[in-house]
Amino acid sequence: MEQILLKGLDGGNWRLADYLKRDGYAALKKMFADKMTPEQVIDELKKSALRGRGGAGFPTGLKWSFMPKNYEGDKYLVCNSDEGEPGTFKDRDILYHNPHQLIEGMIIAAYAMGIKAGYNYIHGEIFEVYERFEEALEEARAAGFLGDNILGTDFSFQLHSHMGYGAYICGEETALLESIEGKKGQPRFKPPFPASFGLYGKPTTINNTETFASVPWIILNGGEKYLELGRPNNGGTKIFSVSGHVERPGNYEVPLGTPFAKLLEMAGGMRGGHKLKACIPGGSSMPVLTGDVMMDLDMDYDSIAKAGSYLGSGAVIIMDETVCMVKALQRLSYFYYEESCGQCTPCREGTGWLYRVVDRIENGMGRNEDLDLLLNMTDNIQGRTICALGDAAAMPVRSFVRNFRDEFQYHIDHKHCLVSS
Amino acid sequence: MFEIEIDGKTLSVPPGSTVMEAANRLGIYVPHFCYHRKLSIAANCRMCLVEVEKAPKPLPACATPVANGMKVKTHSDAAASAQKAVMEFLLINHPLDCPICDQGGECQLQDLSVGYGGVESRYGEDKRVVPNKNLGSLISTDMTRCIHCTRCVRFGQEIAGVMELGMAGRGEHSEIMPFVSKTVDSELSGNVIDLCPVGALTSKPFRYSARGWELSNRRSVSPHCSLGSNLTVQVKNGKVMRVLPLDNEEINECWLSDKDRFSYEGLNSSDRLEKPMIKQGGEWREVEWTVALDYVARGLKDIARSHGAQGIGALASPHSTLEELHLLQKLARGLGSENIDFRLRRSDFRAFPKAPWLGMKIADLSILDRVLVIGSMLNQDQPLIANRMRQSAKKGVEVNVVNPTSDNFRIKLANQAVVPVAEMAAALEAILAGLSGKGKGEAKAIAQSLKSGKNVGIFLGNIAEQHQDASRLHRLASQIAEKCEGKLGFLGEAANSVGGHLVKAVPASNGLNAREMIEDPRKGYLLWNCEPELDMMNPAAALAAMDKAEMVVAFSPFRHRAHEYADVLLPISPFTETSGTFVNTEGRVQSFKGAVAPRGESRPGWKVLRVLGNLLELEGFDYEDTESVMQEIGIAGYAQCDNSIDAEPDALPAAGGLQRIGHAPIYFADGLARRSESLQATRLSAAPAAFMNAKLLKKLGIEEGNPVLVKQGEGEARLNAALDDRLADDCVFVASGHPQTSALGALFGAISVERL
Amino acid sequence: MLSAESKKKIDREVAKYPADWKQSAVMAALRIAQDEKGWLAPETIEFVADYLGMEAIAVYEVATFYNMYNLEPVGKYKLTLCTNLPCALSGANDVAAYLKEKLGIGFNETTPDGKITLKEGECFGSCGYAPVFLINNRKMCGSLTFAEVDRILAELE
Ligand SMILES: Cc1cc2nc3c(=O)[nH]c(=O)nc-3n(C[C@H](O)[C@H](O)[C@H](O)COP(=O)(O)O)c2cc1C
Ligand code: SF4
Ligand code: FES
Which CATH number describes the domain made up of C4-65? Predict the structure, then answer.
């Protein structure tokens, strides 16, 4: 199985010298040697059908083409490494084990959009990763890959890292921009979109770490090759972060479209031979699916969407039959309640209310009307807020209650748990 | 233009408008909390969700730009259910304590919850309780009621230019607060009370004193700065309970300075003079008006007889009404004295403007693309003009300043020349030179900025007007304006700084001006609404002159130090208890009626002067009302003003040594503000100190906080030294308008400081 | 107020951003200040505000929004344990109970000797290494077993 992001990484070989041995910066050199125009770069991206790996799955080539072309003044490129979606831990490994591939991808992106400065926003809790990335940046600068007149061309690009400090919401792209501007990470209302009003009010493109890191391979091997790795409209490989009740939790890079059963097998199967009860296939914000549905699923954007959930960030949270779904939801609801930025009324007030009701049910104080109340509340939050955190808080509640309603009802009726009873 | 349809009605709107703006133009009300036409769009309350055809989810009207052919429904089932859902979320943690809330009856949340709220709450969990914050003497908090609309935060950032409040914390734990124990009292902070759509921020002085519906509203005009802000004065049982802004886009917009908002407290202060009083044999005695006025008439006649009418001088506050100023000058002149003046803080009379005004409409400030402000503490002296310039600067207008202190007015200035107060004329000369291509440094940069403009405004502020070299500053400023084909304007100190000129409350060439009346003391003084030791250009000299006079008649709404030197105290009504007129800095004539009956035995000034004129058997003092006085004055609408200067005043001899900046801080500037307890408790009312920059402190061997003796000629004051590194070299800022500095001399001029 | 070394570090962060966007360095400046002082006292926040030309309340907003800043003094070692769902599935709650019992404190408490403060964290983006905790916002320790916890605690001075 072809791997393009994690191939040959052993934990120690992250430095520039190692990367060069893996054909590192070859794409950048090729781009300059072939005198590729920015349009050609973007065309390759479009052909590759690479879709954003940050969660929304937006086609990357298309996004890049939104940047104003003959714009006087600064434009910015921003990498979203604020990975904090429960279940997701892929960007961290890319940064830690293969930082130069991200740097190379960002340089190519900057060239394609005529951008001279960029930032990589790194999740606050992974300080060691941040320090290593800073070192990698130094290496790239010293070697002439980054900075003024890259590889002797007249293209210059400055890249810095910016560290978050504990706010999940900064993963939302406009909150992230606010955060770089030295403010609270409160998402902005869109429109205007970052491509016209982004960082410091300037046109800005934001992509996920994995998205950028996929770019060098696409430029080196061509967009069509990349597309062929996966499925139509679902080009390339994807890292799935598998966590929870498997034998070997970890990151698995597989072609899009790989059957879930295969992925589960790669992760060593269910821990202790337990049974798959439920799985969140795309990070905690996405709807949970039952084990049966999962076992028939292929891991790509379209198949998962058809099954009623989303591929999201590719975080696969595995739960076996010992898990109490009420308790699991209680913890997730607490997360969104804690992490709401607080500006929109439905999210600020609604996430707390959701959590309190679920918490009440978990603690044996549920009322009969609670399940309908929860579902109605999610209707009143979803689609009514500035950013998608409102949706992210609503979707788990809705899917947990819908897919495991009996278990919730049992909690309410018997004032205790179905699983541990 | 885009064609759009809202609730079945069509209209065309310019691209870039929002659905909310379009709806407003159709007169369609979309419920909202966070949206405010003067603030940036936050779109956080989500109350304004509306249905937009083809949009998969409801969109906030306040933030959604119109698109051609858009069809919007603001009251459809989908819209209404979204709005109701938001209302439910807003109310779950709201205390619903309307019966004890000051906002009750004038609360947006209360009003909207009637239309959009559910009957019964589905929320059965514990409600959030948020600790209150101490914001200082002006604003009370009940933070549990806050709905996080962030209007107050945006107001500070965007309008006041200083972020006094922030929203700390995150999510449900977010709280509006100042930093640690900082107070909220910029010159404009009270506006957050109006902006707060619930009862989280309310007026502290007004707290628990009345309910909205018990108050009657009276229109009025601010008696303070020269802007002439329009007011709603709210009264209950014959007492002024609260003052709110009256929207006037052309003047104060929807804002009010704190001075305009809170100084009404002075109206109700225990300092009010309620009965005429006469001093006889060293004892003060309350008397009837007839007795008092008889006494005054006789006294004035005596002085005229024994010393000539020129022995009488009349000094009036520029905060007096037009009618009062007119009648006072008519009375003085009727007595045969040409000694009348209202320019109390002015010191340079070598040449003076004929009727100094802004030189343009207030609203036209926004047309300027280059501005030069000369000698002004703009935020304090003209809080709302400062705001207009702040908004302009944000749009790229270049604001330049020449000042003896580097106060940036909380505006992103283009250039600022900070020069010792004695060198301001030299700085203007340098700018003039710069306009002819010479010069260097800041002056040149300012010149370049002005030269590159199409609509240039040059403005002289209080410091420039009260400066020893005011005439020359005026002359130079007008030359600068001419050179860059701009307009010259005076920001104007007080409510009637323009009006006093129009009614000739200034001496002709055979009379004495305010300064001369003090330096060459008169036998008798008529003090109109002023406290010479606080309101005049040389307090010590003014006091000495009062002490020496044979008769001082103080017409005043307040008891004051005149107790010591006056012979007669006559209670006249403040602006809320009389009708009258102010002419603001754009020359706009604004008349108002009394809001309540005069307190005690006090009487409207124009009536007092009418009776006195009659007692003195002067011609033409038979007025029925202020309208008939205005008819005689003969100005209406916009008055003819004139900033021209024909004289060419010589350069003053170079001033060596330390120079005083004796600006009157915002709440020391007039009698009413001085008596507002809440304003006096703010940061801006801190006791006077001798402020110097670090260099000067060092030169004098003084440390911050050291007690010092400040001297001007005979006068002295004991103050503490304080550091203010914004001050230019060799300048000592010692506030005027305060009892602690009223033994000092001229507001601008030589001063010495020694360590005690 | 802050050491020359900290100021130098802040200056290096400031240099990453456009000249009129010093404010962008506020998160880093607060982190550096916290590293030096242990927590963000009001004076420290004011110092950072002045240093970057910001309003103190604007800095305070930032300090209270991101939850890795300590607005109160903490022990010499702050242990933040992730208890989010993926970690919980892999035993984070057991580790939490073990830590609480061993240290004799609950979440948001500090041992009486002022050595260790225990905090509950949200997802670190490291769920594959669960359970995980973070020491003083810097060092991440993963795949925690009780024995591993014992070993790490023993190493803390
Ligand atoms: C609440 C919230 C959290 C998010 N967190 C992340 C994140 O941690 N990493 C990320 O790349 N994208 C995250 N996103 C998605 C970003 O907003 C954005 O879509 C993405 O960075 C775009 O990059 P891509 O097109 O390469 O996916 C989040 C979105 C929301 C609403
Ligand atoms: S949905 Fe929640 S997190 Fe997103 S902007 Fe609104 S309040 Fe903030
Ligand atoms: S008024 Fe539109 S969201 Fe508040």
Answer: 1.10.10.1590
